[in-house]
Amino acid sequence: MIKKFTMHSYEDTISLGIKLGHLTKNKMVFILEGDLGAGKTTLTKGIAKGLGIDSTVTSPTFTILKIYKGRLNLYHFDAYRLEGVSHELGFEEYINQDGLSVIEWSNHLVDLLPSELLKIEITYIDDETREITLTSMGEQYDDLLKEL
Question: The whole model's pTM is what?
Fold first, then answer.
């Protein structure tokens, strides 16, 4: 199933993220695709709010992973620097733990991703506008999109 949304502001993107966070179930995986500055971390901030996380969410570019505590743990990955990485990092251990894994630049970890996930593509239209395309891969993600 595919759903598309046009976001006309930062606040719209946060709002969509909050809705996603509210609908998230344990052990889900969201992959975020989009150019630098498209709004991947902004959407993740909204998701965190929807999970009841009060901490300030920032891009984990230099740390690779940031963990936030809320209704569900949020494992926020940035795989930008991990091209060609092996299984030795323990990535799979995190995505199999209780919580939600949100992965930016997942194309660097394709061989390690589960077959069922929610793919979120963010396209920069202009300074304020983004198109967000959500593609569900698996029944629980179909259900999430039906509720959204």
Answer: 0.90
